[in-house]
Amino acid sequence: MDIPSKYEPNRVENQWYDYWMQHGYFHSQPDEREPYTIVIPPPNVTGVLHMGHMLNNTLQDVLIRRARMQGKNACWVPGTDHASIATEAKVVAKLKEEGIPKDSISREDFLEHAWDWTHKYGGVILQQLKKLGCSCDWDRTKFTMDPDMEASVIKVFVELFEKGQIYRGYRMVNWDPEARTTLSDEEVIYEERQGFLYHIAYPVEGTGETVTIATTRPETLLGDTAVCVHPEDERYFHLHGKKVRVPICDRVVPVIPDPYVTMEFGTGCLKITPAHDINDYELGVKHGLDIVDIFNPDATLNANGLHYEGQDRFEARKAIVKELEEKGYLVKKEPYTNNVGTSERTRAVIEPRLSDQWFLRMEDLARPALEAVLDSGEVQLVPSKFDNTYRHWMENIRDWNISRQLWWGQRIPAYYYGPGKDDFAVAETAEAALEKARAQSGNPKLELTDLRQDEDVLDTWFSSWLWPISVFGGILDPDNEEVKYYYPTTDLVTAPDILFFWVARMIMAGYAFRGERPFRTVYLTGLVRDAQRRKMSKSLGNSPDALKLIETYGADGVRVGLLLSAAAGNDLLFDEGLCQQGKNFANKIWNAFRLVQGWEVADIDQPQTAALGIKWYQNRLAKTLVEIEDHYTKYRISDALMATYRLIWDDFCSWLLEIAKPAYGSPVDRKTYDAVIGLFEENLKLLHPFMPFLTEEVWQHIRPRTPEQALIVAPWPKVAGYDAEVLEGFDTTREVVSGIRTIRKDKNIPFRDAVSLSVRDESGLDRQWDPIISKLSNAPEITYSKEAPESALSFRVGSNEYFIPLAGSVDLEAEIQKLREELEYTRGFLASVEKKLSNERFVNNAPEQVVALERKKAADAVSKIETLEKSLASLQ
């Protein structure tokens, strides 16, 4: 087989991915093997590959490829999430561009547009993951709106409702005016924003007095229905039982005393707007206040906004402030930093809003999920630093608002049959709901046409919390063969920002619907940040094009670049230079392979150097494998890569190949060649999870392979014992060779010029390594003596000193002069440092680390002077 002179990722990657797909290596079916199962965190169906996806899915692919090579039945289930809010927003925007407002078409017509959008753009990200090399079982691809997945969600809703865990309630919720839907508390992101605190005078009825109210949202005064003071605040005793007039709208409202008010904040006088603040709402219920809603669903003002009706809330704020100022109600305006709730999806500022919504009681569901992580350890978070975050969320859990005012998603299976608040039936189908409705209403004449299904859909997370179960059909058919074999899954790889949104809820669902954990380990990646530590995002323009990176550096190069600094739970500071490092590594391996394949092989005796080198590398490989296995066990995937990287680049390419390489123009013996090829193959196995394309390409070039012998299914190297003395002996050898090379470099002695090496042996060196020292240093003559030779430069390795006589190799007089000058400079430097250290004021007043640094400088200078004096003495 011809070996191209260059490694060409763009040619190789498509070829081998097609080969893997053609032979079904990614596909899994239940059998007698141990299963290893991962479910992909389903990306948004209309999403595209970004750096976070690249990191997350590379880590999953590393784990799944290794498990496959370990002989496990590796199953990686891919899929996408319908992403109600994000997808509906894109469809609405597309329709708007075409001049079609969403409100002008029916739900059915809108869903047709949504499905068209999904079929056109959906799944693009999964195709992009193939470019990265992800070895998912594509035959198992799922979508949260697939019929069976939707049926699973509806079945769970009905079961939970019948158990009393789902209920409908009129509550204050988080309203996203851009998406026009409610959000759960967890979907609200709080941001510090600079605004103003407005002090507004409210006239007290029947007097000439006013009370001053401080607010950051003056537009909401149009919905005020009371003013509240602390019952013990002496400043306002005289106002108890009085009424005040709200500026602009002239609504007369009561002054109510309640300990909720903080006397020290602002003026100690609080405006109460029950329709637009959760705490105000609770005070309103307590005191029987009116509720005046001033906003439309899009956060423009409604008819209660008087002459501001139709204006955007922020525009209305400016106009209202201006009117307050003109009419003398604005006392003052001062800068104020406020925590503002924003939508995690649309970034719109959230409005608290009262509405009827569906809720899931969480307290009972949370209890076993909390115990699984913090008590029994059935589910392990990696790194464990996230345990406390998990505990905080789960111990302070609130009921989950699961309804969304959207059309794209699983529609809530509640069917209304009458005008009353509770005139509805919950069932998996309309037909089943009709039977329930007839029984509940006592009206046997009800027909399907009398039923009106709830307009809302379920929160997207209400489908994805079932993901590890529903992808195997475990909700609809709890005893099917697949769910019993693959569930619980093994590892989950995801980002910590969805630890509660998704991970915690999956754990809850696992115990609620299967009575066991959904996965064993949750590997939490960090966020991908740029070199300035900023989170990568489209808005900042600091996120590179993922596919462009793959095109430039190859998929393997990008995978290595991502993983080189991707320690679990720690943010990754992405630098494109890391991808170049990955590409360079690929080229290094390719060139090493071409070097070995270019050797002429002959049936001759094996040199002692090659035998020694191979013995050392076999032990080095064995020890490194122990380290790699430990890293994998602890999910230190970046460390596993670095250990593999160093083994191949440093030990194999830089040392073993130099030791085994035959002299120029000479053949290599067959025993050495076969051993080197065998070790190369072991290297490729260790590297395959990280660099699947390159390794398969080299593997297939080494020798003819059947599909059963492809690297993707080759057996993972087995851990074996190693000889520590061999490794220690070679470490010494490596230091000696490096010492000789350093002298050669410093003294400009070319490698072609042989040097002799004299060793003053103080510890009984193992001389078996001398042939390697001779070959790699071109030091054919190695002598051992108790005396130091004349006119020689030396270096130490351990307790032994090594000398290279310089007669004939360098200009001794010039070398002596150079050493004298360096010695004089170092003595002067030492004197200046000692003078500083003899100054008591400096030693007593300088920071401890500064003094310590000066003392280290002095010690280093003393050591260097000793070495220079010895070198000078040996040359004179």
Structure description:
The chain has 876 residues and is an alpha/beta fold. 44% of the residues lie in helices and 17% in strands. Strand 18 (414-416) and strand 19 form a beta hairpin. 40% of the residues are buried. The model has no long low-confidence stretch (mean pLDDT 91).
Q: Identify the CATH homologous superfamily of the domain at 181-351.
A: Valyl/Leucyl/Isoleucyl-tRNA synthetase, editing domain
CATH domain fold name of the domain at 181-351 = Isoleucyl-tRNA Synthetase, domain 2
**Largest sheet entry:** 4 strands, antiparallel
How are strands sequenced across the largest beta sheet? Answer: 6-5-14-16
**Structural class determined from secondary elements:** alpha/beta
Q: Into which percent range does the helicity of residues fall?
A: 40-55%
**SS summary, helix count:** 26
Q: Give the N-terminus to C-terminus distance in angstroms.
A: 60 Å
Just give the CATH class of the domain at 181-351: Alpha Beta
Strand and helix map with partners:
Elements: H1 9-22, E1 35-39, H2 51-69, E2 73-77, E3 79-80, H3 84-97, H4 107-121, H5 124-132, E4 142-143, H6 147-162, E5 166-176, E6 181-183, E7 188-203, E8 210-215, E9 226-229, E10 243-245, E11 252-257, E12 269-272, H7 278-287, H8 313-326, E13 330-343, E14 351-360, H9 363-374, E15 380-382, H10 387-395, E16 400-401, E17 403-404, E18 414-416, E19 424-426, H11 430-441, E20 452-453, E21 457-458, H12 461-464, H13 467-470, H14 481-486, E22 491-494, H15 499-513, E23 521-524, E24 528-529, H16 546-563, E25 572-573, H17 576-597, E26 601-602, H18 608-633, H19 637-660, E27 668-669, H20 670-687, H21 692-702, H22 724-746, E28 756-760, H23 770-777, E29 781-784, E30 792-797, E31 800-805, H24 812-837, H25 840-845, H26 848-875
Helix pairs in contact: 1-21, 2-16, 3-4, 9-10, 9-15, 16-17, 17-19, 18-19, 18-20, 18-22, 19-20, 20-21, 22-23, 24-26
